[in-house]
Amino acid sequence: MSKHTYDTGIIGNCAFLAHINKNTNVDWLCWPRFDSTFIFGGLLDKEKGGEFSIRPEGEYTTVQHYLENTNVLITEISPASGGKYRITDFAPRFYQHQRYYKQLMLIRKIEAIEGSPRIIVKCEPVSEYGAVKLSVNRGSNHIQYQGGEENIRLTTNIPISYIFDEQPFVLNETKYLAMTYGEPLEAPLISTVDRFLAETVQYWRTWIKHSSIATYFQPFVIRSALALKIHQYEDTGAIIAASTTSLPESPGSGRNWDYRYCWLRDTYYVITALNHIGHFEEMEKYFGYVTDITFSEMERYQPLYGITGKKDLVENILTDLAGYMGNQPVRIGNQASEHIQNDIYGQVLISLLPLYTDHRFVFSERKDSVHWIAFLLSKIEHTIDEKDAGIWEFRNMANIHCYSNLFQWAGASAAEKMARTIQNQELIDKAVSLKERAAAHIESCYDPVRKVYTNSAGSSNLDASTLQLIMMNYLDPNSQKAKDHLAALEKELRTPNGLFYRYLYADDFGKPKTTFLICAFWYVEALATVGRLDDAQREFGNLLQYSNHLLLFSEDVDEEDGSQWGNFPQAYSHVGLMNAAYRIAMKLDRPIFL
């Protein structure tokens, strides 16, 4: 089999995300929110998923790229019969009237580049995950699709009959398609779209200019930053793991998950990445989302929440959809929301630490400090001796996980620092005590014979998550213990091609068949941290080959052929790349002219 890559790019405006295939089809678009039903879902079912394509008659080839430093996607189509045309796809986003304009509007601009190509526009949105076909009503210059939660309107200067009848026509002038959800576009089509495009391009390029991105593999970090940005649901500040659901970790594995939610376990990594590139606004919004959950969650934290903080994420299987390349099941919701993951209390404490260490926050924003520091420390205290599902969310396996206790140790360390800032000795004493208890659990995972920390107490299994012992300075990076631990992990979990398995022991679904990409970026960070900088640079450069044609990365990579699998693009793979590049750049610390 040939190498599998995802042939889509993403566009978005922090209100929605869409996947545009190289074949011009909108393969994935959920409206009105990231976690809503798809309007176009050809990614999971080419028959029931609807279609929005702009194809020529007969055979054709395509190339796809982003306008530099933007989330505006260009697809160029070359029909075998001659001619050439360009589609510019974007979601409008810019600043006006003292707020960001980010309407639920997908815009497609079609321009002839060479000759007079003949094209066919097909637009068939659906609802209720393909179970409902929308009724179609013709207007003078628009088509209305009804039967879903809200009306969908396609406004265009293409003759309506051509779209209705899917009739080929000659592209002899620039054509515009503006699809809206709920509120229609009432303004003049052509001038409005051209203005929206210019202002959206300007917004993204300004956003990148205001980013602190080192020169080390800068194009990859820029693309990762742009991808991460549009995975944030600006209304609440939540950042989702991916915009897709049910893309398999490997063909036939059954490991097909809905990733359109916010995992608290990734809080530390996300905030670190945003901080590295100097985007305080996004970090603050995400911080606000986590804080809202903190103040509303009086019981146990869930590992993940909906983008509005919703707790009830019941997992359902849609039996009527074919699945990606026939891979079943198709899942909506995620049962992992019911799991016990005890690292998340430490994650939240670390995420709140900038309030006390970053002077861009003002003192008044640290209100109720004693209450919620004490609250979160009490959560650690009540769970510190408890078995949990661990970072990888084992469904039927509970252990005292090294990684969970590491974040309890780190969270207690953060709490100690915060308590010292507000000069509360009682909280200082409690935090120090919990640090010691967490460290005792971590040490119970140490194997002195192999000189490595195992995944959990009493286990001989190794786990890539324990790389964090080094990056989080639980282990002194300059110590022999840290170097031995890294050497043992890379001996067992690193692949010949430089990828990294999460683990190689059997879980609820058997042994994993693909590597987890963020673990490879963690490995790069660990190499840089212990001073193996040449190795870190070599391994980092090697990992970049596993992107698709647009520098977008998946969740999983097949060691055998480098295929992309898992949900795509995975925000946390891009976070891993950003953090690894930053770690190397800081270690290099050399003048730009050298």
Q: Mind explaining what this structure looks like?
A:
This is Glycoside hydrolase family 15 protein. The structure is a single chain. The protein has 594 residues and is α+β, with helices and mostly antiparallel strands. It has 15 helices and 30 strands. The strands form 10 sheets. The protein has an 8-stranded antiparallel beta sheet, covered by helices on one side. The longest helix is centred in the middle third of the chain and has 21 residues, at 189-209.
Distance between the termini: 43 Å
Strand residue content? 15-25%
Task: Give the strand order, joined by hyphens, for the main sheet.
Answer: 6-7-8-11-19-17-16-15
Low-confidence stretches: none
Helical content stands at 25-40%
Tell me, what's the shape? globular
What's the total count of β strands? Answer: 30
**Biggest pleated-sheet summary:** 8 strands, antiparallel
Taking all residues together, what is the mean pLDDT? 89
Domain GH15-like: 220-582
Domain Trehalase-like N-terminal: 10-155
Organism: Mucilaginibacter angelicae
InterPro entries: 6-hairpin_glycosidase_sf (IPR008928), 6hp_glycosidase-like_sf (IPR012341), GH15-like (IPR011613), Trehalase-like_N (IPR045582)
